[in-house]
Amino acid sequence: MAGFRTLDDLGDVAGKVALVRVDLNLPMKDGSATDLTRVRAVAPTILELADAGAKVLLLAHFGRPKGERNSTMSTSFVQGDVEGVLGRRLMFISEVSGPVVEQSLGILRNGDIGLLENTRFWPGEEANDAAFAAAIAEHGDFYVNDAFSAAHRAHASTEGLAHLLPAYAGRSMEAELTALEAALGSPETPVAALVGGAKVSTKLAVLENLVGRVQHLIIGGGMANTFLAARGVNVGKSLCEHELADITNVIMDKADSAGCTVHLPYDVVVAKEFAANPPSVRTCNVHEVAPDEMILDIGPQATEALADVLKTCRTLVWNGPLGAFETPPFDEATVALAKTAAALTREGQLVSVAGGGDTVAALHHSGVAEDFTYVSTAGGAFLEWMEGKKLPGVKALGTGLER
After folding, report:
1. DSSP labels for 274-325?
2. Per the domain annotation, does 177 fall within a domain?
3. Count of domains in the chain?
């Protein structure tokens, strides 16, 4: 894809210093990371640069120290986890600029990797302070951004540095942007977007952007209850934002005008209590939900109909589950539709791009995450991209992706 430079555009980097922005904000328990997905994502970029003879300095944040040093949020805590994935030793560097970094570069040999301290220990990071960015840039010959998940933040290490040094997308960033371009930038049509989750209020901007860009909009999760209620359906005790009825009706009207079909369930799985395999669970028409019942998944007929819709589509963007998938049996619709999308993808019939924490968990739960065209681990950045926003960290790379 044109519009931004990748590692393929780098010449000889032996002896040069690569400032590489990565996402090492890992979930921790008892001093160790519980999920190394983000490290595995950036490992190819780090190793490619190191193997080419560059001195690699890793820039990352860890937690929310609010511009002050915090001994519990040092990137040194993830050093061992990163070393384990890379199979290489790292030099921990307790600063991000100044004499300590300069001295460390004097010790590092070509191909060595240094891990800089938490960028958010300095207020200049989140303020995207020009002087702070310049102090970091002073130590580098070029900049690589491989942290799409932080690209929605206009911080010094995600945006500012790209204006001060030759800037390149790392392999993970490159794959992400290529996948997103295929999903909503210049996709094969028809396009279906599946948007699920608990609340419409958190995804209003996403829905408003998508109705003008896709041919099929599938609403799932608690969000579907709000849409159903706005259409006069009694959803009982279901999670529902009744106060958003007017807004959801506006979205439906916009969809009609844009030729986008909005798919809401017409059969649902309900129960009187939200628990695993409750005795009260049953499947019914959406107009038969009792006052003391709550909708916790979409029904088999609606699921089958959605599978038929996907078979007519060429592109799918998926964000959010169809039901309360963490609690059986309310995972059945999500698993069934995920398996359909995976099968169509394997057959070459569908380009499938999914993103967001719950979505990734749901696809792994369904056993099909590996079969999707691309699964993004980014949360906020993926959502803002679905909203049609230009992400500062991406824009700074000169991508010029018009959506």
Report:
1. -SSS-TT-EEEEGGG--TT-EEEEE-HHHHHHHHHHHHT-SEEEEES-SS-T
2. no
3. 2
Contact 354, 319 (CB under 8 A): yes
**Pairwise CA distance, residues 368 & 68, whole Å:** 42
Looking at residue 6, what DSSP letter applies? B
Catalytic residues: 38, 199, 357, 380
Provide the domain limits for residue 258. 187-388
Q: Let me know: does 102 contact 139? Beta carbons within 8 Å.
A: yes
Q: Which of 369, 393, 387 is nearest to 37 (CA)?
A: 369
CATH of the domain at 81: 3.40.50.1260
Mark whether 19 and 149 lie in a shared domain.
yes
Q: Say if residues 62 and 74 touch (Cβ distance below 8 Å).
A: yes
- Whether cis (ω within 30° of 0) applies to the bond prior to 300 is no
Q: Give yes or no for residue 7 having a pLDDT over 70.
A: yes
Q: Please indicate, yes or no, whether residues 124 and 260 belong to a single structural domain of this protein.
A: no
Q: pLDDT tens across 133-169, in order?
A: 999 999 999 999 999 999 999 999 999 999 999 999 9
Tell whether 157 and 191 lie within a shared domain: no
Quote the distance between the C-alpha of residue 103 and its chain's center.
37
Going by C-beta distance under 8 Å and a sequence separation of 6 or more, which residues neighbour residue 257?
none
Angle of helix 300-311 relative to helix 332-346, nearest 10 degrees, comes to: 20
How many whole angstroms from its chain centre is CA 126? 20
Which amino acid would we find at residue 208? Answer: E
Q: How far apart are CA 214 and CA 260, in angstroms?
A: 6
Q: Same domain for 212 and 298?
A: yes
Spacing of C-alpha 124 from chain mean position: 25
Q: What is the largest CA-CA distance in the chain?
A: 73
Q: H or E stretch including 168?
A: strand 167-169
Q: How many CB atoms lie within 10 A of CB 205?
A: 14
C-alpha separations of 315 from 4, 193, 203, 245, 373 in Å: 24, 8, 20, 29, 10
Q: Per-residue pLDDT for 403 more than 60?
A: no
Rounded to whole angstroms, the Cα distance separating 143 from 13 reads 12
Nearest CA among 254, 215, 180 for reference residue 403: 180
Token digits for 397?
């790379």
| Domain annotation covers residue 155 | yes
Q: Are 282 and 268 in contact (CB under 8 A)?
A: no
Within this chain, do residues 194 and 151 fall inside the same structural domain, yes or no?
no
Task: Give the tens place of pLDDT for each residue, 185-214.
Answer: 889 999 999 999 899 999 999 999 999 999
Q: Which residue has the tokens 């894809």?
A: 1
